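Example S7 (structure tokens).
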């Protein structure tokens, strides 16, 4: 598929979303559109797989299959390979065509034969139930729970809701997702595009599930530096899973792990994994509060990436167990309950493998705030020697907040007294403004990554600081202390300034004389 065709597909999908836009908030109609696309994907995947199994049989078209023994065999093989099963009557195009039917009753009026809501609801439930008792059960359980087909937001009456859903399914049914093309991830890319578009319209809530693509690209390129294959990648606040999948664009990833607290976003992440053709055995996405109920503590990961919620509240000292928690106790202090930034950082460090790299996005406050955070920061640098780089990003880069953020890069295998790289990519010339949002360009991403990988020192952009220098600054990592971006102003010619002021005075006298003349002609008093 060419670039133009890809963009056309993305725009087509976004236009289909117009059917719901205006009826509900972006984060609500997102769940319906992405859910229907996912259902279409599962259907086409099932059909392609079954047709492949039927090659050489008398009935080669799965949609027309009637042999119960063959159906039973396909059911068994599908659960083993795909992780779910759909009968021919449950496929997306079958339901879509029924919803689009224009059958008439004896009086010539439209009949109820195109009513599909109950049947569609049963199919979505069946997808989840087909996995019960199998390896894939956890990955499919309650995937469609946010799609309430009887919600009055879809229409005041049953017929209105049925008409709207039928219309959306018909539009989607006319799109070829080209799942047979194994070299192209057309649908995956389009899905990512839609997630980004929904994030742009979701306001503050967008930060719960989406990291801007260019920022994700920086994190992914950093953690894959020098590696073509990764044993595992982990995101403790994985949102829609886009950041995990971005790492897979830079290196071959064997296993994906993530945890997400928001139930709806957790469902989206699992859909995103499956839709990007990540086998259900190769990912483990869990739903729970990572700091309070971590699900993967016994594992260590070769790559860790994250964009945790900025300065979120957590229980901290209010939970006595945290004082003995292996993730936090080594540092001697807990992150403040009002700001969980360092708690997330400590959690990720604990899960990082000895040969791994970690890159995470955090607010600038982690670089300089004192008290407990200052103590943890000092221990992290002085005693553990894990901090490898600090990268400052432009303000207004993330959905839902305009504050500037930074990327911290950490490694457990750094040499003693190795320097720490500081990069200031926050200034003009390192981003472009698109409407109300600042956006990193490909060239900006390339410069940041190249500077990190080659440890480049460039005037007013990057600097390598020794541990001694950082200690002199009392372990404060505020980037301007290390990267001097001050631009000296040009010399001022006082003689030229004095002449300009004198000329302005002369012009003012002439103007006042003109105004006085006009006032006399009009027989009105002058204003001065």
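Recovered sequence:
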């Amino acid at each position: 598929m060419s670039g133009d065709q890809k963009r056309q597909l993305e725009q087509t999908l976004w236009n289909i979303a117009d059917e719901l836009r205006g009826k509900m908030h972006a984060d609500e109609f997102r769940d319906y559109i992405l859910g229907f696309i996912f259902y279409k994907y599962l259907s086409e995947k099932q059909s392609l797989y079954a047709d492949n199994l039927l090659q050489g049989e008398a009935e080669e078209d799965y949609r027309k299959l009637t042999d119960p023994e063959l159906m039973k065999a396909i059911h068994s093989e599908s659960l083993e390979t795909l992780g779910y099963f759909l009968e021919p009557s449950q496929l997306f195009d079958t339901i879509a065509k029924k919803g689009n039917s224009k059958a008439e009753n004896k009086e010539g009026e439209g009949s109820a034969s195109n009513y599909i809501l109950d049947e569609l609801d049963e199919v979505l439930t069946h997808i989840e139930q087909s996995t019960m008792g199998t390896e894939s059960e956890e990955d499919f359980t309650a995937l469609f729970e946010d799609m309430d087909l009887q919600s009055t937001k879809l229409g005041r009456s049953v017929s209105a809701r049925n008409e709207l859903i039928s219309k959306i399914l018909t539009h989607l049914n006319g799109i070829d997702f080209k799942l047979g093309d194994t070299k192209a991830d057309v649908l995956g890319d389009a899905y990512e595009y839609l997630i980004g578009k929904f994030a742009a319209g979701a306001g503050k809530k967008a930060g719960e599930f989406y990291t801007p693509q260019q920022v994700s690209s920086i994190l992914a390129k950093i953690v894959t530096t020098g590696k073509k294959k990764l044993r595992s990648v982990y995101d403790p606040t994985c949102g829609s899973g886009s950041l995990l999948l971005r790492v897979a664009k830079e290196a071959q990833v064997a296993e994906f792990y993530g945890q997400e607290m928001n139930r709806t976003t957790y469902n989206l992440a699992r859909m995103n994994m499956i839709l990007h053709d990540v086998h259900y055995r190769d990912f483990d996405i869990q739903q729970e509060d990572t700091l309070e109920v971590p699900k993967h503590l016994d594992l260590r990961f070769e790559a860790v990436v994250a964009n945790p919620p900025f300065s979120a509240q957590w229980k901290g000292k209010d939970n006595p167990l945290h004082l003995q928690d292996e993730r936090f106790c080594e540092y001697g202090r807990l992150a403040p309950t009002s700001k969980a930034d360092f708690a997330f950082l400590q959690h990720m460090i604990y899960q990082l493998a000895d040969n791994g790299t970690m890159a995470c996005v955090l607010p600038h406050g982690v670089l300089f705030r004192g008290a407990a955070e200052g103590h943890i920061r000092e221990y992290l640098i002085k005693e553990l020697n894990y901090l490898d780089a600090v990268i400052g990003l432009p303000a207004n880069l993330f959905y839902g907040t305009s504050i500037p953020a930074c990327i911290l890069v950490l490694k457990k295998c750094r040499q003693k007294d190795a320097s720490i790289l500081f990069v200031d990519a926050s200034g003009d010339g390192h981003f472009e403004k698109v409407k109300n949002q600042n956006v990193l360009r490909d060239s900006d991403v390339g410069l940041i990554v190249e500077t990190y990988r080659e440890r480049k020192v460039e005037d007013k952009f990057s600097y390598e600081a020794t541990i001694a220098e950082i200690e002199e600054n009392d372990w404060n990592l505020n980037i301007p202390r290390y990267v001097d971006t001050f631009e000296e102003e040009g010399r001022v010619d006082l003689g030229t300034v004095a002449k300009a002021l004198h000329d302005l005075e002369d012009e003012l006298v002439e103007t006042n004389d003109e105004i006085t003349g006009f006032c006399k002609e009009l027989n009105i008093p002058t204003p001065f």
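Notes on this example. The first helix runs from residue 3 to 17.
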